Amino acid sequence: MEPPERKNEILHRIERLQGLLREQDIDGALLTERIDRVYFTATDQDAHLYVPAGGRPLLMVRKSMDRAVQDAAIDDVVPLRSFSEILRLIQRHSGYLPRRMGLELDVLPMRFYRTYEKHFPDVELLDIWPLIRQVRMIKSSYEVDCLKRGAHMADEMYARVPQFLDTAETENDLAAQVEYFYRSHGHPGLVPARGFNQIPLYGHIMAGANAALPSNSSGATGGKGLGPFLSQGAGKGKLRRNDPILIDYVGNVGGYNADQTRIFVMGKLDPELLTAHEVMREIQDTIAHHGRPGTVTGDLYERALSIAQRAGLHQTFMGFPDPVPFVGHGVGLELNEWPVIGRGLKTTLEEGMALAIEPKVVFPGKGVVGIENTFVVTSSGMERLNRFPDDIVNC
Predict the structure, then answer these.
(1) What pLDDT, on a 0 to 100 scale, did the predictor assign at position 4?
(2) Which backbone phi and psi does 288 adopt, to 5 degrees?
(3) pTM of the predicted model, to two decimals?
(4) S-S: 382 plus which of 94, 141, 291, 298, CB 3.0-4.6 Å?
């Protein structure tokens, strides 16, 4: 974005958050998490961002002040030497002390929280992460454009995979080539995910039986990984003929993550797996067809599950032996944003939401098949951003 457009974008995001703060009778929000600071200021410098329920936000910078002044899309940027200064700076900026103040309690370290308790003894501290997620799950035209370019980056990478497989002998060899392609095309090398102990991996590359191994991954697939220190994703397993090779790697442009999965095979895939892959495509297409504004995400999940049940795949649908209760998730600056297409969830789809739909099915001892593409909810339905074909690619 050019500077004026960038500033307008950021101010619009802040105004949306301020409206939600006023609805909840919260005087302001103090944001410290890096991605939230990027979203609301356009800079990732070490800082505290105070967003009052009304008026101008204040960025209090620990390091680097010079970079923050250069990059931030808000006007009020001041140095912060210690946490004990925060309340004084807020009062001087806003003209009053907050009675009720929101914090990102989903990720805030307890040490920080105890420090705030000490320095803000008369302030009621509340969790405003649900409000932040509510703001962030509706994408602007700028954000959708970033997602489209990220999807295009992924499309270009997937088109090169047959060439990569000519020389790759192991999962890790293939991962190295895929990651080199991404980095050489501007990928930042990180795919942030919200939550404690989330690993910012590019994604998963795994082949054959390794793909069907259980792991600590929060998604449907795991992989063997490189050892007990990282027991998911690509490992040293050989790429063998006739095994399904799953590549679930995220394109990223401007910090925005477009998720995509494809299956490749050197030779011929087991007919049972081919049939199952077509069922996963049917699930994806069904969700995309019914995913219109006003649709409840939990209802879309039940449609997906009913198709898997009808095909006799429900026992290993979305993981085995520990299936995950979702088939789609929001994407944006983080990989696991709202909304989620999952069991029992009541979120209503709205225009501007961006989601990755990822139906997958596990065959223990054989591998995993499935599909994933990134979509944006429009007034007329879901627009698919990825263009690479959904077919299994024979190499």
Answers:
(1) 65
(2) -60, -35
(3) 0.95
(4) 291
